[in-house]
Task: inverse folding
């Protein structure tokens, strides 16, 4: 008797739901002239300077293992970009280069969350984020966003109520997907700086535990250095 392949899977992996996006993509590829919007990419070809650089790299023999944390020049370029974006000097030592954004999320989840833990995720959200938590045995806890004249807002009362002794991480997706963002907005998930400063929300966890913050340093983008440092502003950022 041959057991099915799924028989050896961990319960968390076996119980993971099928991707509706993948099923939609498979259907659309056979449906004729369809513009691909389901995975967040358009129909523009890869710019020539990108594939030409890749071609030169292959021809130069750059096909073996590279620096574990990423090519130093690339990490420096990322640090320079982030320093300009956040208006503060950031060292390349704070940045790690992964094969993809999803790989970075999976690694981060593996490092901070496991069975019995909870990960707070503002919702609506990209489904891969709660899936990454679930595969680690953690429970995604959704905090519904409110929509009004100022766009999508996160209610700090709801956020605070979601924090429990089992909370190990908070996933902030920015720019928000699938909610999108407008260029004139500072941030799609805007925190009221005055409210955040008054409450100093994150330092008040049960048992003194500080949830890890996965994603961009939200309060750093808002320019509140005091709160940014309380979130761990000197810790490495995964990119």
Result:
């Amino acid at each position: 008797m041959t057991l099915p392949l799924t028989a050896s899977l961990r319960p968390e992996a076996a119980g993971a739901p099928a991707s509706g996006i993948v099923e939609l993509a498979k259907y659309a590829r056979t449906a004729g002239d369809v513009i691909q919007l389901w995975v967040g990419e358009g129909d523009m070809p890869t710019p020539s300077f990108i594939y030409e650089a890749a071609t030169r790299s292959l021809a130069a023999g750059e096909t073996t293992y590279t620096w574990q944390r990423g090519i130093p020049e690339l990490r420096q370029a990322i640090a320079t970009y982030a320093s300009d974006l956040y208006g503060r000097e950031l060292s390349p030592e704070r940045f790690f280069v992964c094969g993809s954004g999803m790989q970075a999320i999976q690694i981060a989840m593996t490092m901070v969350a496991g069975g019995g833990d909870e990960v707070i995720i503002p919702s609506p959200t990209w489904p891969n984020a709660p899936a990454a938590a679930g595969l680690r045995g953690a429970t995604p806890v959704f905090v519904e966003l409110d929509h009004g004249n100022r766009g999508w807002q996160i209610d700090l009362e709801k956020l605070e109520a979601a924090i429990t002794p089992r909370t190990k991480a908070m996933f902030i997706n920015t720019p928000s997907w699938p909610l999108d963002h407008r260029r004139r907005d500072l941030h799609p998930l805007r925190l009221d700086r005055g409210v955040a400063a008054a409450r100093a929300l994150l330092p008040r966890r049960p048992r003194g535990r500080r949830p890890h913050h996965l994603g961009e340093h939200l309060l750093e983008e808002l320019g509140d250095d005091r709160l940014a440092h309380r979130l761990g502003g000197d810790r490495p950022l995964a990119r």
Observations:
- Residues 181-239 have pLDDT under 50 and may be disordered.
- Strands lie at 95-96, 118-123, 139-144, 146-148, 151-153, 167-171, 212-214, 237-238.
